[in-house]
What does this fold into?
Amino acid sequence: MSLPRAIALFSTLLWACAGTAEHRHERTPAPPEPPARAEAAPVGGEATTAAEAAATPEPPAPEGPVPPVVRIPLEDQERIDAAVEAAIARGEMPGAVVIVGRRDGVVFRRAYGRRALEPAPLPMEIDTIFDLASVTKAVATATAVAMLVDEGRVDLDRPVAAYVPEFAADGKSEVTVRQLLTHTGGLPPANPLSDFEDGAQGALERILAVRPAGPAGRYQYSDLGFIVLGALVERVSGQTLDAFARTRIFEPLGMRESAFRPGAELRPRIAPTERSERRDPELIHGEVHDPRAWRLGGVAGNAGLFSTADDLARFARAMLAGGALDGARIVREETLRAFTAPERAGRTVRALGWNAERGGAYGHGGFTGTALWIDPQAGAFLVFLSNRVHPDGSGDVRPLVRTLRRMASEAASRAGPPPPEGAPVLLGVDALRRDGFRRLAGARVGLVTNVSGRARDGARTLDLLHAAPGVTVVAVFAPEHGLSADREGHVRSGRDARTDLPVHSLFGETRRPTAEQLDGVDTLVFDIQDVGVRFYTYMSTMLRAMEAAAERDLRFVVLDRPNPLGGERVEGPVLEDELRSFVNYHALPVRHGMTPGELARMLNEERDVGARLEVVEVEGWRRAMYWEDTGLAWVPPSPNLREPPQVLLYPAVALLEGTNVSVGRGTDRPFEVVGAPWMDAEAIVRRLAEERLAGVRVEPTAFVPRAGPHRRRRCNGVRLEVTDRDAYRPVRTGLALARALRAEHADRWDPERLALLVGSRRTADAAVAGEPLDGIAAAWEPELARFRAVRARYLAYEP
It folds into this structure.
């Protein structure tokens, strides 16, 4: 077969990952040993000369591990999860790591599936190291060229031969640096592997002297062009490409685990790629998959870089910030814009070293199943790392990457604010996970949870325990609103779709686990987000589950969570015994200021439950912190508490829910509005203004609820907004609303059931009678003081 026909045939095997073509591993004889580069150490990194070391700035101090974090809404998380898990189920890759981020940091970060199927199954971890394949072209080679352009040492429109004279052979003397960066230099995609048989130096000489496959100016994706650009970087800088990338790109940006030819100590964390009949060992693991980069010693301009998703996220953040991160600048903003701007490349659109779109997004993919995409207009980026070629080269992640790119931009636009400075808040499940689930080793678990039972990175507690070594999840128990927390009323038992475990409802005819449901269980684990309000039923469910555990001498483990209303303030009347119910389960004030773990300890002792109780405490949370201070994503624990501002208003507005007004259920603003068709909104606003309520704004509004009282009828009412959460007193605010309704609408408003949620007939009657708020609060203060004294014995967290 002639060389042109061989090249043409080879080009039909090009594979596009996120729009980037790259070459399939060829099964041809390999040299006995990959040749080592004279400039580089054989294992564990690159050698640097004394002069280079003296000129290299000190790298930034290590930041420690990146904490797991998720800042996007639950629906976005679930869309990403479903897309990735479906691709794994279809066999498109064994597993993946996905990061979505913005300039201000990561907003989604999760690992899926397995990093290895052979020789033994191994789970994918967030810090798995991947062979980036052609992502090397953009992150290492094109970035290095941009830095040299920035320094005036390379001119994009000068011939490559001005820097690498041998390249002028065979009519290439006028091919420019820009043309190689855009794959329009006329070079063939690749050259025969027989060109590499006498070592790296001879192979490079043949690549530099290669005959063009066509005229310059026509787009032809070419690995050879980027191998030449890698040689150009070495000639101009005086450093090997790997040393240049390490000292000039990775170290300044804090990319501590990005390198060509990673050291043997990193091998256990590296995702293997493809089986190879011609390599020893047969499974490619820890060395570059690309056959040409491998024959060049593992360092080449087209491939060879290994990295983690966290490191690539730092690189992407630097790109969104104009070429700098955390005070370290690697390239000027103007140069970066020039390299990433879309331009015509033959009949396609490219940037300099990147794929590009007319809208301004740019990125690159890798043959092994990797992709990095950056969208400056949306201010978002996607890192997708997989080893889709493992173990037999048959995977395909291109459709998934296209889907994830769209999802990433949409999710990033809805992400919450960056986490606060300082140590991250770790939930009880995070602490359990970090410690290898040792506390539950050998346990047969019944898990009481719902959709809010998630780790900091968004992983379901149910999935984590189901996959944890040495832990057997026997059954799942769901509180009011069901496992998905999206239902009202009676909730039926069923099965969890993901794990196929039985899910027993604890809201309906059965409100505590039965002996039959607990058969085979030796440990009940509770992980549900509470909202810090007495009449929210999840803590009542916890009490009944704890009583069932005590009766059967089971361990009861609470995975603690922050109180979203903070842990300092308590307010409202303490529950009167005659009003005790499933909703009002213990002598607590409306706002109790305790976490689930603290409440569990109080209930276990004060009610003499006698459970073998253990609490896995939250770390990094202080009592003064509200939810917004934690850096945690809010996962709605029930259908109408969709955002933290609604949680702040819940203990005020929900006090009225037993009466004949709408509190916004069935609207987009549940617990932010109160209204009825007969309400005089302006008069209610005037009445509330006279109360001089602190920390809350009240204004007239109108709405049509789709559920609850006055369903499908226009309601006039008021909208509330907390303006100062420290000054705001929710119970006082709710009782002020009751006073105003009674004063303006004594003939229409029915307060008969007001006491049921207030928890005190004395308080409810005083509000209906129009007594001053100060006097109402003074009347409940003696009982509240006694509660504070009892509460103090069970508090676990610092102010």
